[in-house]
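Predict both folds.
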Amino acid sequence: MHEYPNNRPSGRIGLYGMEFYAHHGVGQAERLMGRSFIVDLSLDMEVEGAALYDDLEKTADYEKMYQIVKAEMAVNAALMETVARRIAWRIKNLYPKAKNIELTIKKISPFIGGKCRHAEVKYFVD
């Protein structure tokens, strides 16, 4: 039998590589033309009840998580930080017991006056 800290087994639930086309950016060209974005989202939470009873209500529903990301990526913002904050706090409000929420947004080929694979923002909520 495994020993768990505080007798509360937890797990990490994540969605990685979600792809969106959006119009986030400070510059007019990015806002008009848009860019491709890749979003990663993960969180820690107690999953023992879900695992024992095969019950989706006792864990994070990654379809609901995806729908939040999709909705927020569709709302234009100048900064990726703004979008990341909106997503992370909507997830936290949906799953108040979630810990270590980590959201990464990558803007592919940002307009920076030179070659760059991607710009990246990470946002954390405990």
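Second protein follows, with its predicted structure tokens after the sequence.
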Amino acid sequence: MILAKVRASALPGIFLILFLLASVGVAQTPARATLVRIQVTARKYTFNPEVITVNAGGRVELIITAVDRDHGITIPAFGVKQYLKKGVPTTVSFIASKPGSFAFHCSVFCGMGHRHMKGKLVVRAR
């Protein structure tokens, strides 16, 4: 009889512990990031579009086609560095994890105007 009373009084505590453990698990599960796909072209000395705007926390896929020759793209803030072969659409994926304005540029020398081949990634806060 005493054992039955102990078991019955322990049930609310056990349920509380299970609820807390389940809540912690839910809190640690990342929400599915929104996917944004953007078509970009790279040609001598320019990216089109030059300014790319996305929301913070979203997954970004840039589908980039080098039109006139081989190029590259580097977005240092998000660890992106990709070679772009002429005529081959290349997908670059990353999570826009922090809001702000971030520079990107061509990472493959493409002529005298190479240093001007750059753009801006704008990540808006949610």
